[in-house]
Amino acid sequence: MAVTIVWYGHDAFRVDAPPIVYIDPWNLPDDLPLADVILITHDHYDHCSPDDVEKVLGPDTQIVGPSAALAKLGRIQAAKRTVKAGDRFSIGNLSVEVVPAYNVNKRFHPKSAGHVGYVLDMYGVRIYHAGDTDVIPEMANIRCDVALLPVSGTYVMDANEAAEVVRILQPRLVIPMHYGAIVGKRKDAERLARLVDVPVRILEPEESVEV
Q1: 116 CB-near residues (< 8 Å, 6+ apart)
Q2: Distances (CA, A) of 44 to 10, 24, 37, 85, 108
Q3: Using the 8-state DSSP alphabet, how is residue 158 labeled?
């Protein structure tokens, strides 16, 4: 079964197998497929957007995220699952591991806030969405085929640090994220591609790749 990854800019992705999974939907276009599952990494506005969640909300959509993020989505009537780093769960053909995401030398995403990333396993393809994070020791325990990694610096790791993560994870494909909207530019993604031996796919918004 092929798995398709669509990037909508910043940290927003759709992963289709089925099920249809959105991660950190923000600034989404209209008329998208409805979600089976929505994964939220943390409560910041550019990751946890009630308006964007509602754009892809279906009658049976399940929303997953840390408690602070779900509280921000309180007006939305849907099945919700509160998670923290270390949790694991399955929904249909999707298995999810919840992993830590935090800053080590910045104040924006403290470890105490409980922000997370996710490892999705769909039909044997493991996709790691790092969330907003720096290089952290817990990454040594992550196994993935595809790594979605921030590259912009300022609030998250930069391209040099993302290259360090690639050397830790050894995925078969890397997709850069967290650039082009609030902070960071395409040149940050291109820099990561030059620094690593692993294939790096730099997507345009709404472009997809099959893995």
Answers
A1: 41, 42, 65, 66, 83, 84, 85, 98, 99, 100, 101, 131
A2: 13, 10, 19, 17, 10
A3: B
Span 84-124, pLDDT tens digits: 999 999 999 999 999 999 999 898 999 999 999 999 999 99
Burial of 187 (C-beta count, 10 Å sphere; 0-12/13-18/19+): exposed
Q: How many other C-beta atoms are found inside a 10 Å radius of the C-beta of residue 123?
A: 11
Order of strands, sheet of 146-150, starting from the edge strand that comes earlier in the sequence: 88-91, 94-100, 116-122, 125-129, 146-150, 173-177
Cα 5 to the center of its chain, rounded Å? 11
Cβ atoms < 10 Å from Cβ of 53: 25
**What domains are there in the chain, each with its CATH number?**
4-201 (3.60.15.10)
Q: pTM higher than 0.90 for the full model?
A: yes
Q: Is 105 helix (H, G, I), strand (E, B) or coil?
A: coil
